[in-house]
Design brief:
heterodimer; A: Rossmann fold; six-stranded parallel beta sheet; B: about 160 residues; alpha+beta; Alpha-Beta Plaits; 9 strands
């Protein structure tokens, strides 16, 4: 069977040429046959009597569990794992902020303005910058580490009041976030909770934990530590790599874990290490979400030492095959283990800073608060030590790939600033029909829905042609940027109304919010719009789609969107179709509870139709003619 | 005659048939042990395979034990013989690993061993066994055993 395709034709061409490497694009064909039970979520492996699979002849597991129970348990387990991943990032970011505040860490805070705003939002007071930072970090850590019996205190400070009220009525206001994850695992273990409705409500609870703490607070704390996003044009793609530099590619999600490395590379001493081995200096190359975060804040941190964002999750094997990457440093997912044999071939050093991201052949150089700059120097020297040998013996083959005019640095704050201070102008454009609605195209990239970024690109193109403004965060934005959708010239694909707005503001029809963590920012934009209109989030002409969702984290993100009351489109269903009850609840019944619902639609045009229909219904309710 | 009825519309791609085939030919008693069993000849591989057709639909591919088997016709060593029970079975002692069967089978069901000089690995219809391993393992009843006379269409019947 042939290699999996990509919407990024240049990347596809490069993979075609590089038949010497085996990548996920090749392995996708080997894994083409899927187990139907797994896909439907009706294979239960929770005990030694199993695996039990639900068939028409055997409708219950040995224990008596129905398909509904099996599916709900499996879904809650996945959401819990996804929530745990984001909460890990939030906790490590808060711990970093705390260690900077106490002076244990030598790092500095890059935005005191962001700290003031965040402290005010959370109701934290203090005299000095360090007191404020300490207070914010403590408030976050205290909430994350509370027992489940104590409700988290920051929820009501972060979410719109209408939502907090609804969540209270539904009983999904979370206790300590880590304890909520813990008890989700307890609930879904062998012969424990068998109630699918209770399990789905727990999913929404974990969605709130994920969205407010894992996403929103991580962003806001990273704004303090790494600086605020500002809108700027930047370069993306493989062409951002230059073999003249020592190239350190970064993968992961936790921007502030790289705070030490960024600070050290910004210094003369850091760059001199590169020059000492015959390079022009040392550069960071963005891969996956942490690269997107670096690009988002490139005016505040790493600017001149950040080469650019090379691509999203499934580009990393190809990027290593270029031979121009000297070292990969990862602190979190999405780091494909498929890079290991390629790294061996190209003598690329693999390092991880956190054992959660430990690849078999990677060296664990643990990031410890306080030692950030010492670790940064070790990392820099290690990468530089590879340079002479690698440039002498490893062929470099970098394709011409990417764009150098990608509009980056969009956040809830920088977008409001661009619009003149608040979101009123955007609402006006919606009211007068120039823009027909707003869609968040969010989350991952996968190889399943038509190929790498194929459905993401097709759906986005369809939406912008209908004058629907697209906000993107996650690997979707990495893919869309590499395919030209985040460059001003993408206005050509937009409908007449949206195109005129793009021309007036000098923006593309797809706004690049950066990493998947910034899904929290897109949802903050939704909250701002709701506030400005004086309505609740479910009433907004805003929809979200994770067209090519990949992983458990995406399911946790999705649960936040559903808790917020947004309509969420997925091209492929999660493993729920084996349960009529869970499927019905997620695709219909939920609307009465939170206002949110899931739409599953593989065809991008049909998906755009359905999303536009949702938007139109909401516009009509708001009294806006469509 | 024991024949295999295959209703491909029922296949969910669980690959239990593949696993059961490996198990029964590895000499191990169950699929888990089959994974762990030593395989010096490299022929403990599945004789069947769940594939996707051009439309992306599941297709459980099995040896048909054809009435006029191309593999038998092209076999120069006499290793492949269609027996009185209609099953086409390979005698490994005679097989010379020439790949003629691999090249001539129109269904791609003649496979070379990974080791053992590339000797042929193919379905033996579970000759000598009370039942067929793949049929026993199919949870969907996509595969069923039927007892109907040889009508010249081979051993496997796709419906």
């Amino acid at each position: 069977m042939s290699r999996c395709q990509s919407a990024d034709t240049c990347l596809a061409g490069y993979l075609e040429k590089r038949s010497d490497i085996n990548t996920a694009f090749d392995r996708m064909a080997d894994q083409a046959v899927k187990c139907g039970y797994g896909q439907m979520g009706v294979c239960c492996r929770l005990c030694s009597n199993g695996p039990c699979r639900v068939t028409p002849d055997s409708p219950k597991g040995v224990c008596g569990a129905t398909a509904d129970t099996m599916v709900a348990r499996g879904f809650l387990r996945a959401v819990a794992a996804g929530a745990a991943c984001y909460l890990h990032v939030a906790e490590s970011t808060a711990s970093r902020l705390k260690s900077i505040a106490t002076g244990d860490s030598p790092l500095r805070l890059r935005s005191e303005k962001s700290l003031d705003e965040l402290a005010a939002k959370l109701g934290v007071s203090g005299g000095s910058v360090k007191e404020l930072a300490f207070g914010v970090a403590e408030a976050v850590l205290n909430d994350l580490q509370r027992p489940r019996s104590e409700k988290m205190e920051l929820v009501s400070k972060l979410a719109p009041p209408g939502r907090v009220k609804r969540w209270g009525e539904l009983g999904i206001l979370p206790g300590g976030a880590k304890a909520e994850v813990f008890d989700a695992l307890v609930k879904t273990s062998t012969n424990l909770n068998a109630d699918p409705v209770d399990q789905l409500l727990h999913c929404l609870n974990l969605g709130v934990c994920t969205g407010l703490y894992g996403l929103a607070l991580t962003n806001l704390m990273n704004d303090v530590i790494m600086g605020e996003p500002e809108i700027v044009a930047a370069a993306v793609g493989f062409s951002t790599l230059s073999p003249d530099y020592v190239n350190i590619a970064v993968t992961g999600h936790s921007h502030s874990v790289f705070a030490g490395l960024v600070a050290f590379l910004e210094s003369e001493a850091g760059q001199q290490i590169g020059r000492d081995v015959g390079a022009k200096g040392v550069k960071l190359v963005g891969l996956t979400c942490v690269g997107q975060d670096m690009q988002l804040r490139s005016t505040a941190a790493a600017g001149h030492v950040f080469a650019g964002q090379a691509g999203n999750n499934f580009t990393q094997e190809a990027l290593l095959a270029t031979g121009a990457v000297d070292m990969v440093v990862s602190e979190f997912n999405c780091t494909l283990s498929g890079i290991e044999p390629i790294a061996e071939l190209t003598k690329t050093k693999l390092v991880c800073l956190d054992d959660v991201a430990k690849l078999t052949s990677a060296e664990l150089m643990a990031d410890r608060k306080g030692d950030e700059l010492k670790l940064a120097e070790r990392l820099c020297r290690l990468a530089a030590s590879q340079f002479p040998m690698r440039r002498a013996h490893i062929p470099v083959d970098i394709p011409t790939h990417g764009h150098d005019d990608v509009v980056c640095g969009v956040s809830e704050k920088s977008l409001a600033k661009l619009l003149g201070g608040d979101f009123a102008p955007l609402l006006e454009l919606i009211k007068n029909g120039t823009i027909k609605g707003v869609a968040g195209i969010l989350g991952c990239s996968n190889l399943a829905a038509g190929g790498h970024d194929v459905t993401t690109v097709a759906l986005t193109k369809e939406l912008i042609s209908r004058d629907i403004l697209v906000l993107s965060a996650g690997c979707t934005s990495g893919g869309l940027a590499n395919c030209g959708f985040c460059s001003p010239s993408a206005k050509e694909w937009a409908g007449p109304g949206l195109r005129a707005v793009c021309e007036k503001l000098g923006i593309p029809p797809v706004l690049n919010f950066g990493p998947c963590l910034a899904i929290g920012r897109v949802e903050m934009v939704a909250a701002e719009l709701a506030k400005a209109l004086g309505v609740d989030i479910p009433d907004l002409p805003v929809v979200i789609s994770a067209p090519q969702w990949l992983e458990e984290q995406a399911l946790a993100d999705g649960c936040f969107g559903l808790a917020l009351g947004l309509t969420l489109h997925l091209a492929q269903p999660p493993a729920i179709l084996g349960s009529p009850l869970v499927t019905k609840l997620l695709t219909a019944g939920l609307e009465e509870l939170t206002g949110g619902k899931v739409i599953v639609e593989m065809d991008p045009v049909a998906a755009a139709d359905k999303l536009q229909q949702v938007i139109n219904t909401k516009l009509a309710k708001l009294g806006v003619g469509v | 005659m024991r024949r295999k009825l295959i209703d491909r519309s029922k296949c969910v791609g669980c690959k239990n048939c593949e696993l059961a085939c490996v198990a029964v030919h590895s000499g191990a008693s169950d699929p888990l042990l089959a994974y762990l069993a030593p395989d010096p000849d490299g022929d403990a591989r599945s004789r069947n395979k769940v594939e996707l057709d051009k439309e992306g639909k599941l297709f459980p591919a099995f040896c048909r034990h054809c009435s006029e088997p191309a593999c038998v016709e092209t076999c120069p060593s006499g290793a492949l013989v269609k027996g009185e029970d209609s099953l086409v079975v390979c005698d490994h002692d005679l097989c010379i690993g020439c790949f003629m069967c691999v090249m001539s089978c129109p269904y791609g069901m003649a496979r070379p061993s990974a080791k053992n000089g590339g000797k042929m690995v193919k379905c033996d219809g579970c000759r000598g066994r009370a039942s067929m391993a793949c049929v026993d393992a199919c949870p969907q009843r996509c595969l069923t055993a039927v007892d109907i006379p040889d009508d010249g269409e081979g051993h496997a019947i796709y419906i």
